[in-house]
What we know:
single chain, alpha/beta, globular
Amino acid sequence: MKVIGLAGRPGSGKSAVASGxxxxxxxxxxxxxxxxxxxxxxxxxxxARIVAAFGEGIVGRDGRIDRVELGRIxxxxxxxxxxxxxIVHPTLNERLSHxxxxxxxxxxxxxxxxxxxxxxxxxxxxxxxxxxIWLEAPEDIRRERLAAVGRGEQASRGRVIAPSAGAIVIDAxxxxxxxxxxxxxxxxKV
Length: 190
């Protein structure tokens, strides 16, 4: 099984490309954001550690971590973001490792793991990937894509992230179908 990390700034097209490619036979997609939400759901050790680190004020009325409130804290303070990544990413790496084994046992040929920080966080285990692909798009395109799905305020979040050494950088301008075709070509060469 090939394990492909798909990363990039918000609005670069990661989710759209990954979901499109996952329609191909033998290709599956894991959204790291959703997986992260699982590792810090109420009742998990991740939940307890995050609340201990950032306070009860990040817990919403529903008893879950209020991601908007947590985002307000971590996106304005690099030390807070680092603290959050040190808590979440090791647990996420472990959960992802289990998922990779499950997919391999099920016969998945290509597993696309999509997440903004795959290529930049020091706490992500990049050795789990056969290759990391970084989608690069100008800010105006990213803003337009995010605005189209009601997430326009997230365009500036990714300014501090950049691809790690060894990542394949793909031009993510143009229609998503074209970006997906460029990513598929890169995957085929792995």
